[in-house]
Amino acid sequence: MNEFIASLGQICAVIGAQWGDEGKGKAVDALTEHFDVIARASGGANAGHTIIFDGKKRVFHLLPSGSFHAGKKIILGAGMVIHLPTLLKEIAELGQSGVEILPRLTISSAAHIVLDCYKDIDAALEERRAETAGKIGTTKRGIGPAYMFKAMRAGIRMESLTRSAAELRREIATIADMARSLFGVSADADGELELLRQAADSLRGCIAGADEIAEFLNSKKSRILIEGAQATLLDLDHGTYPYVTSSATTAAGAIHGLGMAPRRLSSCIGVAKAYCTRVGEGEFITEAAEPAAGRLRERGGEYGATTGRPRRCGWLSIPNLRRSATINGFDCWNITKLDVLDAESEIPVFMETGGSGALSWKKLPGWQASTVGATDFGELPERAQDFIAFIEQETQIPVRLIGTGQRRGEMIVRNV
Ligand code: IMP
Fold first, then answer.
1. Maximum distance among all alpha carbons in the chain?
2. What is the predicted pLDDT for the residue at 305?
3. N or C, where is the chain less crowded by C-beta within 10 Å?
4. Cβ neighbours of residue 240 under 8 Å, at least 6 residues apart?
């Protein structure tokens, strides 16, 4: 592990290469002890990072997955959109497990606040799309509307929590007016104000200005682990538009969302499942038919951590991995959930063949043996090793981390 950790340098980003839910949380949780700071840069409670801690399954939506590690500083960057009651709930739940968050939490004053009425706008827009262009299948967490209000220069930022109640009331009234006139949604302005005031009491001391955060992030003192949210193919600019989220989900987006100088990033780990899933609508060329899709879903527990929706399941797409690797500049892969493929007799992979750019399927032989809990590459069946070597060969990027089970520690770390 140590050699691998050293290779990551001072600032490392962990970025999803597919459509989210790759299992970034597990890698972040495993790496956190080697870093001083864990940071989230973009997105909001549409994310759902599941990790198994003390034998219990925990899902985080806003706090980074590494938050369990006592003493690590936590930063929520300017690119995020934060639903305050959700954040307070996560902080309280962790508090009940003896994990204190507030003294080590810093939230950018420029991060935007997700009001409850944004969720109603999200739902209203989905209903209209269903009757016209077709639904996106959002998580209905109000993420799109939060970024819409941000782009309209009407959003409420964390800094507002430090202002007077009268000022906050005015800001909320402006949004309530827009919600009604633009989207036909009536907001409960008093209720929203009350939620913000409650949050202000708990969080005021955690809010820091852009200068303070930039100074800290760029100071060369701390080792920083950036936890990506959503994933590259859901990026607003580089993903499968319009079936994308509303934020920047790439490594560049994370750097921007935190206010970090681009040159400061020392490494980037691309996280991809050994197969592929997607929730919501949109293209998915490698989507599997039944019964294979059902097998992957059941073995992989492929149900949305945020919405509980069954995930669409399918096979690996090498062109998609390559594209994500190019956009993000991955130094290595974390291939997750290898064990989910244990029972497959053959593993279809979508790839370019014959140098002409034509796309077709290749069927790799399955290993049909358990890889669960393997921590050493040599323990893997030969065909599973070949599968990993195939990904390396096709993407020209080494696979350094391999997930072999749900639990902490069920992971192979390769130093070479
Ligand atoms: P939104 O981010 O709620 O607006 O949803 C837009 C699209 O992104 C939908 O297809 C969602 O299912 C998808 N999405 C958003 N966050 C995640 C995530 O954390 N994992 C997987 N899909 C996500």
1. 67
2. 83
3. C
4. 19, 233, 234, 282, 283
Ligand 1 close to Cβ of residue 234 (< 6 A): yes
- Is 211 considered catalytic here? no
Q: Which of 60, 143, 279, 311 to probe ligand 1 with, by most ligand atoms within 8 A of CB?
A: 279
Distance CA 113, CA 93 (A): 21
pLDDT at 68 over 90: no
Taking the model in full, what pTM does it have?
A: 0.96
Residue 277 CA to residue 233 CA, distance in Å, equals 11
Take atom 19 of ligand 1 and give the residue whose Cα is closest: 47
CA-CA-CA-CA torsion sign (12, 18, 24, 27): negative
Q: Which atom of ligand 1 is nearest to the CA of 282?
A: 10
User: Which entry of 29, 34, 36, 49 is annotated as an active-site residue?
Assistant: 49
Three-state SS at 374:
coil
Tokens of 377: 């590459």
| CB 279 near ligand 1, within 6 Å | yes
- State the average pLDDT for the chain: 95
CATH class of 2-109+209-413: alpha beta
pLDDT at 416: 66
Whether ligand 1 lies within 6 angstroms of the CB of 79 is answered as: no
